[in-house]
Amino acid sequence: MTTPRPAPDPWTQLRARLSSGPGGYVFLSLYAALCTGLLLLNTRTSLLTDILFILFMLLALVVYRSQVALGFKLGLGGVLFGLVLPYFGVLNPYYIDVATQAGIYAVLALGLNVVVGFAGLLDLGYVAFYAVGAYLWSIFSTPQIANLFAGAAPIASGWFYAFILLGLAIGAGFGVLLGLPVLRLRGDYLAIVTLGFGEVIRVLAVNLDKPINLTNGAQGIKDIGRPPLPLADFVRGTLGWTLDDNQLYQLFFYLLVLVILLLTVTAVSRLKHSRVGRAWEAIREDETAAIAQGIPLVRMKLMAFAVGASFAGMMGVVFAAKQLFINPPTFDLLRSISILSMVILGGLGSIPGVILGAVLVTLLDLQILPRIATVLRDAQKAGLPIPAAFDPTQYQRLLFGLLLIVMMIFRPEGILPEQRRREALHANEDTGTPEA
Amino acid sequence: MAGEPNASVRNVGQQRTVEIIRMVLLPLVQLALFIVGSAVVLGLIIVVVAFLLSRSDPMLFQTALAILPQVMIDGVVRGFLFATIALGYTMVYGVLEFINFAHGEIFMVGGFVGAGVGYLMQQIGLLTILPPLLFVLITVLAGMTVSGLLAMTTERIAYRPLRGAPRLVPLISAIGMSLVLQDLVRLIATSTPLGFNARFETPDFGQAIKLAEIPLGERSMPVMISPKAIIFITVAVLMLIALNYLVNATRLGKAIRATAQDMSTASLMGVNVNQIIALTFLIGGALGGAAGVLFGLNIGTVNPYMGFIPGIKAFTAAVLGGIGNITGAMVGGIVLGFLEAFVSSYLSMFTGGKFSGASYADIAAFSILILILIFRPSGLLGEAVTQKV
Amino acid sequence: MALLEATEVTKSFGGLTAVNAVTLQIEAGRIVSVIGPNGAGKTTFFNLLTGIYKPDSGSIIFDGKTLVGKRSDEIAALGMRRTFQNIRLFNNMTVLENVLVGMHTHLHAPFWQIIAHTSGLRREEAQARERAREHLAYVGLAAKGDELAKNLPYGDQRRLEIARALAGQPKLILLDEPTAGMNPQETIAATELIRRLRDELGLTVVLIEHDMRLVMAISERISVLDYGTKIAEGDANVIRSNPRVIEAYLGKGAAGHAEAPADSA
Questions:
Q1: C187/B contact by beta carbon, under 8 A
Q2: Which of A194, A362, A413, B106 could cross-link with B288 by S-S, CB 3.0 to 4.6 Å?
């Protein structure tokens, strides 16, 4: 990690040498090769592999921040995340699942960032849109559909791709539906109302097993359909890899999420640098002045809500198909807050920051907390006085809560803030790379 | 300057006493009116709906009427619960224009303190010999102390450094504080004999008191009120009186109101704003803590995540009554409590069991919040706020 | 017909009538000042014109269209732009972006084009940036396009607000105390700029101003508000010698020996 404060000279020099010019290429190649090699040599799930995996993920950040040719960056990124990580995933399915989750959360966080970071509207019920997408696909791809349309059979799994788009549209629709009445509200009231909306959707998910059984209540929906595997014969036959369906599905969803993530980043950054993004930012800065420039406040806020919600709706469909099982607790307030903490950790409004935040929080949640739990259990066996009931993986609230407080007090702009805002807050520091 | 002054001083003194009594009691009269009003309006609605539905199901009308008194009692208890929690939100909002998201957790902590005190007393055998009212007094005071100090501490740690930052910044910090408190209490509770679902040990309060018996065909339906519910209502009313006195009739109250009006002017007039804000948190937190103790006492168990939903609902109550307005918070709490009691008792009955009342009561509460915020953001008793340009 | 016709416009807050039956006609291509002591209702009048407040009664016709009942953004889109007394820039955006936001109503690329990044969109963006730089150059901020708005010196911030308003290609521009807080040199430059807006760009300019030298120098017509009511109207000479104006500024009894209101009230 780079430190935010002015660093001592040797360190600044070293950073400059390693991040640009020939030094940069050598350093990045070495780092990538070393990480890859070590990772492929240590495929068993262990603390060492955890650390290597985290270093591997952070490599993306280092590549992004360095000042080397764009082609080199893209090529290196493509090799690392398109080839190395999937291959490693075949050897150890646990890590590719973590990467897939991180990707899903990155898309969600980018969506929430449109609402909170760009337009400055605090949405605490964001996960509701995710739930809508997930239930959409779950109901239509399982026998639940018969309860909605009598006698209807589950939809063919090939429709999955159409449902990704449908999830996008329905997410946007729900965003408008919620937004229309509430967007006139002041910021803090809006936060509470969206929180209420999120809870309403969750309570509905629990209770809509009657009068007609739509969501199957608290039990959730299982055996959700997943799309037919593309290229399965090619991988098994031509490439001769002996992979079972589950492994292939893992690769499939990883790559699918990666593609969606790339599309999301593209869409979001294009929006940000358009008249729409500027209007959002103007609204966030000063509503009255924004209106005076002819910006229709409610319409632009609705658009932010709809755009953010559409990413969640889309990802909900993918998540349901990947997970094969969903139930209401998956979509509780804590999930909304964890996504919010990703956005805030990374840096409100900053696209690379938000992705970093999503990856860090997912790693913390899925990898580091369980690892601490294991370490604690070992220590406990060795006789250290640690309460038996203490299981760090169950203390996500503490983690997210501390994260929010600490960030708000000490670094409200996030760890990888929007470049421009960072310059504003640390005027004396040298300027880094231009923004994506 | 001689002869007359004594009489006039006495006169002024008398006037002042009358004034104080008026200021303290007026809100309570208002509150009582709202209780009666809510009960009458909702009762009438139930009667009409039940009558309309009774054509298909003759027993429904009778049953609906028979449980009505019980539902109203339930509504009053819930109402006072929301009212006491809502006061904490509204006081802090009045002074800082800030939603103290962690207030639900302050309430929860109060419940745990009560449970802890009860547990300790049980351990040393005090529980069986202690008079129940003394027990209530001790636990409520303990809960108020701990919750009040905790609220003050959270303000010092997580909100004061952010004063003057954009509005959403302290709000996010408060959300974080809410989560941290939930898990800290959980950590403490699960490391002690209390456990996650802590039993709230109490002395024996005796049987529920039967107020009336309503004949219903061959059987009859008793209308009961538990002694705990009576205690709850009594303590809540006492606290409301004390708060009204404090805010309306003391120097401290004047300083609080001045700070709420205009922080910088109050500070120029010699009010120590930081101290007043800390005190506001202390008072609001103490009320929340007392509510937590009374709630635990009534329900019998407490858990670390129990504060969240009542917290949001109490906030709804505060908004419903007009946020920043103390009488408004009480009124809002009562109205919301009644509505919830009615929805959770009658929705299922009137829809033939198709919708479970208890879960849709939550949805009803949130819907009210949304509707109020959209159509009358100033609440029932609030004044319209004009925006400065 | 006048470009802007406000007729009998009234607005009160609670018991206070901030603007009381004010009638004002502004011909296209004029420079008009609205003056009056503090609290006379000048800024409230601007807020009524721009739709931030809704008048209690009265009508406002701009360019043949009625403004009462229209939202602020609709009014801005019709070609009436304003600056603010207490400078309201988008502080954390760059100077250039501030001007680009001002162009919002003139950029029309639909949503899908933004996502698809079509050549049409790229052309529009490039042209917008080009025009934004021209506006910046016009007010003398050509070299500062990439700075954050909040880092500009005070006088430049006022210029930027004008550039942002110009970006909306308005017919009429409302300037709320454009020289407040400026030193004499800056005030001269600002006066020059205001005059150029009318002479070179053909804009109609309405300004609220306390600097009487400026007001008298450039206004073709001056309206005086006091306690929400228009007490006088006319050119500089008429206003200078109007006893009610002198009384409003200096108090009763001053009318006899004061020739003109002081430089800054």
A1: no
A2: B106
Give the chain A residue whose CA is nearest to the CA of B162: A409
Quick check: A241 and A87 in contact, CB under 8 A?
no
Task: Kindly determine whether residue A294 and residue C92, on different chains, have CB atoms separated by under 8 Å.
Answer: no
B:349-388 residues touching chain C, CB 8 A cutoff: 386
Kindly report the CATH number assigned to the domain that includes residue B267: 1.10.3470
Domain count, chain B: 1
Chains that touch C (3 or more CB pairs under 8 A): A, B
CB neighbourhood size of C251 (10 A): 10
Contacts of B360 in chain A (CB under 8 A): 203, 207
Asked whether residue B13 is domain-assigned, the answer is no
How distant, in Å, are the alpha carbons of A42, A48, A98, A225, A254 from that of A37?
9, 13, 20, 37, 21
Query: Which long-range contacts link A246-250 to residues 24+ away (Cβ below 8 Å)?
Result: A246/A93, A247/A90, A247/A93, A249/A322, A250/A89, A250/A93, A250/A96, A250/A97, A250/A100
C25 phi/psi in degrees, rounded to 5: -120, 130
Q: Is B219 exposed, middle or buried (0-12, 13-18, 19+ CB in 10 A)?
A: exposed
Q: Specify if B52 maps to a domain.
A: yes
Question: Hey, what are B228's tokens?
Answer: 């705990």
Would B244 be classed as within a structural domain? yes
Q: What is the pLDDT of residues C81-96, one digit of tens each?
A: 999 999 999 999 999 9
| Cβ atoms of residues A123 and A188 within 8 Å | no
User: How many angstroms from the chain centroid is the CA of residue A200?
Assistant: 23
CATH number listed for the domain at residues C81-169: 3.40.50.300
pLDDT digits (tens, 9 = 90+) for A216-228: 888 999 999 999 8
**Whether domain C1-79+173-178+208-265 has CATH 3.40.50.300:** yes
Which residues of chain C lie closer than 8 angstroms to A303, CB-CB?
111
Mutate to test the interface with A, among C92, C172, C176 (most CBs of A within 10 A): C92
Token match 């800390």: residue? Answer: B278
- Mean pLDDT, all residues of chain C: 89
Largest alpha-carbon pair distance within chain A?
A: 73
**Stated pTM of the model:** 0.88
Strand, helix or coil at A273? coil
C9 near C45, Cβ under 8 Å? yes
**Chains A & C: contacts with CB separation below 8 Å:** 98
Interface contact flag, A270 C52, Cβ < 8 Å: no
Strand B198-199 with B301-302, pairing: antiparallel
Most confident of the following: A169-183, A263-277, B206-220: A263-277
**Host domain of residue B191:** 22-384
Nearest CA to CA, how far is A101 from chain B (Å)? 23
| End-to-end alpha carbon distance in chain B | 52
| Structure ipTM | 0.90
Chain B residues in contact with C13 (beta carbon < 8 A)? 386
Q: Is A227 within 8 Å of A249 (Cβ atoms)?
A: no
Inter-residue contact A5 to A48 (CB < 8 Å): no
Q: Write the DSSP symbol of residue A332.
A: S
Q: Say if the Cβ atoms of B167 and A189 lie within 8 Å.
A: no
B389 contacts in chain C (CB < 8 Å): 47, 52
Kindly state the DSSP code that residue B219 receives in the 8-state scheme: E
pLDDT in tens, B47-76: 888 888 877 777 778 788 888 888 888 888
* Whole-angstrom distance, CA of residue A290 vs CA of residue C102: 8
CB A119 within 8 A of CB A280: yes
Cis peptide before A211 (omega within 30 of 0): yes
Which chain B residues are closer than 8 Å to A288 by Cβ? Answer: 389
Tokens 């005027």 sit at which residue? A427
